[in-house]
Structures are given as C-alpha cells and as structure tokens.
C-alpha cells in the first residue's frame, strides 16, 4: 500500500486500482442485467456510463451508493490516464525568437562543407 500524497501520480494510481477492484462486482451486476434484458442500453450520442448507471439505479438494479462508487472509479481512471494533457500554449515559446537567435549562429566549430582531409 502506498503511503504518501494521494494526489501524486503513484498515490493516484493506487487509489484508482482500489476503486477499480471495488467496482468490479457492480460492473458484473450491470453486465448481467444488460444480458438478461433487465436493463436496456440504448444511448443517444454523447451519453455513456453515467446514463447507464442512472438507469440501473432507477430500475433498482444497483444502489445510489454503488452508482457513486462507479462514478468515483471512472473519475480516478480518467485522472490516471490523462498523461497527455498539456496547456494550449505549449510549444509557442519555441516559435518566439530567443536572445541567441538575435545574436547570430551559435559559436563553435564551423560545419561548412566537407572535410579537407585526404584518405590515402
């Protein structure tokens, strides 16, 4: 078990794992209800798991506490996999000229053309 800040990456991963393991039996209940026809899954575009869970609560297939457990697992999972979430202006500093660009090319060994060394 991880001991530390629950919002750092390792702590978040640990919390998501615990939530996922705890939500497995509830997920099995929902899958079974869909297979048996007790729960109809006809979603409009843009709808998803939250709507299925709400319908399951309305049909008394799961409790509101179980639905909130599924929502917490979904939120934690989304936070764990949100690895490529960058600011919209990321990389714009690369497009701005820096002080070095204004002073000319970097100093060092010139790399103009082929070597004048002869191989015998």
Structure report:
With 120 residues, the chain is mainly α. The protein has a domain at 9-80. The chain has helices spanning 9-36, 49-58, 64-80, 92-95, 99-102. Helix 1 packs across helix 3 (64-80) and helix 2 (49-58) runs antiparallel to helix 3 (64-80). The radius of gyration is 28 Å and the shape is elongated. The mean pLDDT is 79.
Features:
single chain; 0% strand; 120 residues; mainly alpha
| Secondary-structure element pattern, one letter each | HHHHH
Distance between the termini: 67 Å
Helix content: 40-55%
Radius of gyration equals 28 Å
Please summarize what this structure is.
With about 120 residues, the protein is mainly alpha-helical.
List the helices and strands and how they pair.
Elements: H1 9-36, H2 49-58, H3 64-80, H4 92-95, H5 99-102
Helix pairs in contact: 1-3, 2-3
């Amino acid at each position: 078990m991880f001991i530390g800040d629950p919002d750092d990456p390792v702590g978040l991963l640990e919390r998501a794992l615990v939530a996922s393991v705890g939500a497995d039996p509830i997920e099995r209940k929902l899958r079974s209800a869909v297979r048996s026809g007790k729960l109809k899954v006809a979603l409009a575009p843009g709808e998803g798991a939250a709507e299925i869970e709400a319908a399951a609560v309305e049909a008394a297939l799961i409790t509101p506490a179980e639905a909130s457990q599924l929502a917490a697992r979904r939120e934690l999972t989304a936070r764990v996999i949100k690895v490529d979430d960058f600011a919209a202006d990321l990389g714009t500093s690369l497009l701005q000229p820096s002080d070095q660009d204004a002073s000319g090319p970097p100093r060092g060994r010139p790399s103009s053309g082929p070597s004048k060394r002869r191989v015998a």
